[in-house]
Amino acid sequence: MGVLEVAARHARRQVALARQAAREMARLWARVDRQAIGPSWAASVPAAVQVLGSAQAIAAASAAVYLDDLLDEYGLAGGAEGRVVPDALAGVASDGRDLAGLLYQPAIVTLTSLKQGATEGRALAGGRFALDMIVRSQVADAGRVADGVALAVRPQLSGYVRMVVGGTCARCLVLAGRFYRWNAGFQRHPRCDCRHIPASEDAAGDLRTDPKAAFEAMSEAEQDRVFGAAGAQAIREGADMARVVNARRGMQVVGQRKFTTEAAGRRPRLMPEQIYRDAKDRDDAVRLLRLHGYIT
To answer: What DSSP element (H or E) covers 282?
Structure first.
């Protein structure tokens, strides 16, 4: 099948899972009582938490199979130093927040818009968009974090290459094809569909893509859409793409110690990204992942 097809198939399944969860959420949002937006959505939040948590667990559960399929394609011996626990990555937001609190945000967005003079229909549409962004981002993040945990416990693989999925944005395109060590954070923006392709360093060269070549393969209209007319013109005239884009803008990165008390018996628990930052070496990372319940 090939490494790229294994990765692409995994990405397609994760995107489809996020879309399905978003559709279920949209049906819940459609039941909001326009005369009591806050209370009516609050009553639906427990069901929303269940939908999102289930999708996160399914996304996380696929990591082990994905990594083992990649090992087969690389011709490397299988085996892992631990097994991902999908439920440890479900029921909590990627920043460690309570899912219920996060999922109430669309109601706040709607009510704020109404106070600012938006029509009822426009305000509710804004809330629906916020909900869609939350769901797609959180499902994708659960899958990505699980892939990272599965990578950390497979010493045959030393890192990953960033793969863009579908029609991407300028911020992601300039990062496409880069190799990162196994413990490097994955920069992303809301609704980012980019994925890891775990790899050994000596195999990563075959997976890398050239952002400039991808840019040149676009039509001028597509270049203008992705980079903005002025930015695209500057790149066409020889400007450095990364400088034009400012790739870090809009990306979420770990800037402080990340903990969660969700799904941990209310005890503070390090998030996987923080474990990678704190661990002395890979063996220590595996120890901490097991200590905090991400692997067995």
So the answer is: helix 282-291
Q: Is residue 296 a part of any domain in this protein? A: no
pLDDT tens, position by position, 203-252: 766 676 677 777 887 888 888 888 888 888 888 878 888 777 764 455 55
d(Cα 220, Cα 226) in Å, to the nearest integer?
Answer: 10
CA distance 135 to 18: 7
Task: Dihedral sign for Cα 228, 229, 231, 236, please.
Answer: positive
Q: How many domains does the chain have?
A: 1
- Residue 248's pLDDT is what? 47
CA 4/CA 198 separation, integer angstroms: 11
Beta-strand ranges (E) seen in the chain are 159-163, 179-181, 195-199, 259-260, 269-270
DSSP one-letter code for 96: S
Amino acid of residue 150: A
Domain range for 72 is 3-291
What count of Cα atoms within 13 Å lies in the side-chain half-sphere of residue 22? 21
